[in-house]
Amino acid sequence: MNFKALGGATMALALSITTAIAGDYPERTVEIIHQYGPGGGTDRFIRAIGEPMQEATGQSVVPISIKGGGGVPAYVSFLQRPANGYTLVSLSPDDVINHALGRIDLSSVYPLVRIQYDQGMLLTSKDSPLKSLDDILAAAKENPGGLKVGVTGSAGFDDALVGQFNAEAGIELETVPFGAAEMVSNTLGGHIDLMYEEYGPTRGLIESGDLVPLVLFSDERLPELPEVPTAKENGYDVTLGRWRGFGIRPDTDPAIIAKLIELFQAAYEDPGYKEVETQSALQYRSEFLGPDEFKTFMDSETEAFSKIMKDLGY
Q1: 169 and 227 fall within a common domain
Q2: Which tens digits make up the pLDDT trace of 174-198?
Q3: Helix boundaries (H) for 83-193
Q4: Are the CB atoms for 88 and 246 separated by under 8 Å?
Q5: Signal sequence span per UniProt (predicted)?
Q6: Which residues contact 63 (CB under 8 A, 6 or more apart)?
Q7: Are 85 and 260 in contact (CB under 8 A)?
Q8: Do the beta carbons of residue 91 and residue 60 sit within 8 Å?
Q9: Is 224 in the same domain as 300?
Q10: For residue range 207-217, what is the model confidence (pLDDT) as tens digits?
Q11: What is the signed CA dihedral for 124, 128, 130, 133, rounded to 10 degrees?
């Protein structure tokens, strides 16, 4: 028997089967698990990037919200699903922070793609006595811990960024965790002094004048908000932003992984998605990253957030 020929035939058969699997994929709905509420920024992002993917494949891309537990239950649920390419997990700075705090182990996920990279800001109500960054700094120094800043969740990205700003500016803003809608209503009602959020979710209230942005955490000012200064231009090097990407089980068929990367890149370049991106001013820092670049980026984020959370006493 010619074992060499048999081995070659076996490899060819395996390759043809793998190619066939990828060619048929996806044959049903792809679910993306995330740790945030239905209708929030991540939920909307998954729907927006999933729309051109559905048009290309005929199969839906559906966000699955698993809230609570600091994001750990969502990650655990993802790990319990089969590695067949039909369950992905949304990745963000909150997952990196959970990894840094020992709550989850990111070595059990394959970083597939990063798609969004946002920039956040501190906003206040139109009726607030705070009218500028200088007002925030003066009030915070006069009464340390007196200014309350609404953030979404606890011991997550928002907390970390406000904590970094506190350290850079030598002030003490106290964070108060809320759900997103509750945070906005408490800010508008004057029950808290400030809130941290990105431009996209607050655009309507900024344009109506109900919310007023006072400082932006980015390298440069937003063309949509040319009057809003950055913390960086005032000497406070706080530029970290909320990014969004996706991960998959590492033991997923490589051909399916390659097909997903191809689908996500095409969706990222789709004119319909680009319009959504522009509406939220996401086009300035967002850049499509494949697995290798995304892994390098996540490693740098892990290093940065590990230090920040340690400095905050976690």
Answers
A1: yes
A2: 999 998 889 999 999 999 999 999 9
A3: 93-100, 133-142, 157-169, 180-188
A4: yes
A5: 1-22
A6: 31, 32, 34, 38, 42, 43, 46, 47, 50, 90
A7: yes
A8: no
A9: no
A10: 999 999 999 99
A11: 20
Tell which phi-psi region holds residue 70, choosing left (phi > 0), alpha (psi between -120 and 50) or beta: left
Q: What angle do CA 45, 47, 48 make, to 5 degrees?
A: 65
Query: Token pair 């003490």 is at which residue?
Result: 172
Amino acid of residue 41:
G
Q: How far is Cα of residue 226 from the mean position of the Cα atoms in its chain?
A: 24
| 42 and 147, same domain (yes or no) | no
CATH code for the domain in which residue 19 is found: 3.40.190.150
The pLDDT of residue 14 is 43
* Residues contacting residue 294 through CB under 8 Å, at least 6 positions apart: 111, 112, 113, 114, 245
The backbone region for 102, taken as left when phi is positive above 0, alpha when psi lies in -120 to 50, beta otherwise, is left
As for how many domains the chain has, the answer is 2
For residues 227 and 254, state if they share a domain. no
Rounded to whole angstroms, the Cα distance separating 240 from 246 reads 19
Q: Which of 310, 298, 302 is nearest to 97 (CA)?
A: 302
Which two three-digit tokens encode residue 208?
Answer: 């109506």
Question: What is the pTM (predicted TM-score) of this model?
Answer: 0.87
Strand-pairing partners, residue 254, are none
